[in-house]
Task: structure prediction
Amino acid sequence: MVGRFPSPAPGEVGTTAYTDHDVERWFAEPPKSKERTPFERDRARVVHSSGLRRLGAKTQVLGPGSDDFVRTRLTHSLEVAQVGREMGRALGCDPDLVDTACLTHDLGHPPFGHNGERALAEVAAPVGGFEGNAQTLRLLTRLEPKIFADDGTPRGLNLTRASLDASVKYPWSLGDGPARPDGAPTAKFGVYPDDAPVFAWLRQGAPRGRVRCMEAQVMDLADDISYSVHDVEDAVVGGRLDLRMLDDADERARVAEHVRAWYGDWHDPDALDAALVRLRDAGYLVTDFDGSRRALARLKDATSQLIGRFSGSAQDATREVYGPGPLTRYTARLVVPDETADEILALKGVAVTYVMAPREAEPLYGAQRQIIADLVEVLADRAPVALEPQFAADWRAAADDDERLRVVVDQVASLTDVSAMQLHARLVRPR
Result:
């Protein structure tokens, strides 16, 4: 049964392709004004959430305080939402639904970016590990203060089923994901064991297996596109990368090797080299960057052109397979041509080679992981007194030590880079 949505505005295709099942909420709420669709309401809840605000002080690739230009998790999420919204609308998805998925995709990431994520994964290993995407689901359905059920249990933002499903980038638990091409299990996952009930609810109606809905696929590609082009842009502006280096075949080979080391050794180095050559020959790799306004404009134009190239390629390939009409939920799969995937991955490899890999040896990054480990230890030791009030209440309600450790991890994951360092200075290294 198709939901009773208003007719789509010009250019807003796909609005009526969703059913009442898609817009159901885990906890039924009183009827709302019909001036907004359920997906518009979902997006508004995310925009006004404390979790989204905190992303402004969380690391994307470089720390928020490294310079005035560098992207944070918040600016990255806004850019992902812009890319995803336009791509989704072109394919017939509800644009507010895709926007919501894009804005939420990094909400669960802890301070210090992936560096902090690795540190939390180590300390949380006894209780099911830590993964930013699983933490996102936990935040949306439990931790973000908005809606409570009649029995007093929190329901987080209480988003619609379709919005929650679109926000789950990895619809499986730890150890249950698809095998990588080399046969090893994927380390990524999207749900912790104690969040299994809401995960089962939001996946009602989904095909068996690990299939992601169309809107989640659009969000994932928008994330990859934004990640690949914007991290390179930041590196160039920050003086960490001169793209003329990629004229050298040996440098391109270095990039390919870093891709294989970070993303899997099954990736073809020749295909990655060819991808960089295509981008260079097409004029997308801006050289002779001198920091002038004109150079900044050339770089920004190249960034925009790359986004259009990648998203347009996927849109065209998907339409070629599925034809016209709204492609929503589980009616289609996003098609990304191999050459496009190689170009995106090659640019991600450029950022790894010249920014991310070199920083791994810097003392700062080891210190950040130690801050995370110290905070978990001291908060667990001094709980519930040292915990923030909402987490102290969760700690008191926990049934056992495993649940109490998860509460401590929840608090540490909620911190920003700055608040983590300040709390560490106060609790671990008092003056």
Summary: Residues 293-322 form the longest helix (30 residues). The chain has a mean pLDDT of 90. The radius of gyration is 22 Å. The chain has three domains: 20-202, 214-359, 365-427.
